[in-house]
Amino acid sequence: MTPKPLFFCLLFFTLSLKAQSNWQEFKKLSSPKKTWVLLHPFKAKKALIVSREASRISDSIRASSLLDGDFYGGKVDAFRHAFWMTLLQQEIGKNAAHSLGKAHEKENYQTYKKRKLEDGVVPDQISSEMDLFNNEIGLSLSEKGGKLPKNGLVYRVINTIHQGKLKIIKKDKKDNFLTCAGKVIPEKSLLGKWKNNKCLVNSNYQQ
User: Fold this and answer.
1) CA-to-CA distance for 118 and 54, rounded, in angstroms?
2) Domain extents in the chain
3) Of 16, 64, 128, 154, which residue is the least packed, with the fewest Cβ within 10 Å?
């Protein structure tokens, strides 16, 4: 039997979805994110707004010269996850932000199994490890109810990247993935594999 408080939360959430015409959007979510939304019905709308804002700002950072422009395992990728968590925590709290980050990585594994693209590439284990690590650092850079403006949070995350406190995937100047020993990993050897020989390095790594 569904506990009464949870039942009323789910009822409120369902009615809110219909009232806001968000039902179609909810149906498109992966099962891990649907579960998160149902467990956090009062925070779901705010999380959606924050996530869209974090994505917009990450796109702006990518187009700037502040970082390396690399959305696929590079510093911009690291920024995106850390900033997302930093902004989420300030708005919805650490536990809810943390669990949403984990739901996103579960979604990535489902994407891998279905061979769909995430940001243009199929996710793999090392990318997921990178994201989870950067999520945790992002959560240490703000606090719920904090009043630091978005620009302040942006530069806090960027400084953290320059200090080498986040993780990126090791590449050469031609964007080839490298092993920890510095050997180029043939692109064909990465196809269809969740586990591979890519290497995580500190975010101040110089190619």
Assistant:
1) 17
2) 28-168
3) 64
